[in-house]
Amino acid sequence: MLELLLCSAVTVLPDYLYRRYAQDKRIGREITLFSVWYELRWGITFCVILTVSLITTIFYFHPSTSNAVSVFRTVTILPESGGRVAETFVDINQHVAEGQPLFRLDTSQQEAEIETARRRIAEVEAQMEVAKAQLAEADGRIVQARGALKQADDEYQTRAELMRRNASAISQREVDRAQVAVDTAQGAVDAAVAGKAAAQSQLDFALPAQKASAEAALAEAEVARSKALVVAGTDGIVQQFALRPGDVVNPMLRPAGILVPDRRVTGLVAGFGQIEAQVIKVGMVGEVTCPAMPFTVIPVVVTDVQDVIAAGQIRPTDQLQDVAAFVQPGTITAIMEPLFEGGLDRLPRGSACVANAYTSNYDALHDPEIGAFRAFMLHAIDATGLVHAALLRMQALILPVRTLVLSGGH
Length: 410
Prior knowledge:
Elements: H1 2-9, H2 12-22, H3 36-39, H4 41-61, E1 64-69, E2 75-77, E3 83-88, E4 95-96, E5 101-105, H5 108-165, H6 172-227, E6 229-231, E7 236-239, E8 248-249, E9 257-261, E10 268-272, E11 285-290, E12 293-305, E13 332-338, E14 352-358, H7 362-365, H8 372-406
Antiparallel strand pairs: 1-10, 1-14, 2-9, 3-5, 3-8, 4-7, 5-6, 7-9, 10-13, 11-12, 11-14, 12-13
Helix pairs in contact: 1-4, 2-4, 4-8, 5-6
């Protein structure tokens, strides 16, 4: 309507003034309801053309959107494993600090596993003491076996010497029996040495490995017990937290609640139509007005423009995707931050806003090689931003009335 009024002021109004004062035609006589089109045909035609051109120029070079939201992140309160709640430490809408306990799960199973691991460590340590005693026993067996070997070898040497000096003094059978005794004693020595090596290996390798495994199991059980205590990962406010002792929580199916981190609104996420893809640029100045901050227009600047459109994303599946399934055209996502520090501090997180972005041709207009016609067109494009700024301020004035009065306060 504002564009139509502006265009009619330079088209229909001069045409009417010409008909009225130059041609002396008066409303109600020559200019009637039935002759308006014929009498004012040139002004009406130019008014329609100029209005359509002006609206197209304004909305293309100075895009607007009602899809601007101060998005914020929430943290789901979840344990790392399922279990039954044993104790809760906070309530709904309570402010918590980072590391503050939220709730604790039942740890009877973990306590039993810890006790089992400790008993296993004690058992291995006892086996190590036994292995030390067995090692000492093996040393004694070696000494005993070596003494028997020495005695058997002396007996063999004596009988062999007697037989060498006087073959009739001793039989060959007795010499052979002494040789067998020496071999048997040598085997006993080898067996005792091998027994000691086995005991030493048990003490040096097997039992320490068993002890390390038991200690690892103890550490694992203690970690599992520590995970039963769920703490806040950041400062924030607990929402939708209705746990009570005895409730069962599961990280996959049943979360415990939501933690809203302490953050102030530092920017808005705005979605512009795809036709604005060549217009929306980083550094564009804009303005926003939000129902949560009535009668307020906040200057902002575009700090980032997403180079992909979410509506076209696909994920690997077991079936082909039909392009016709992408019904929604999607929008160009832009990040808009306040031009002045603290401009959005009073805006509640999650608020919806109306946003304008204004094209600026300042650098192009200061190019010494720019032509007169191009300079005029760029000046005209920049000047039309004033119309959109006025429209935004009209929206800021009407929005509370439309929300509170015309819509019944809903």
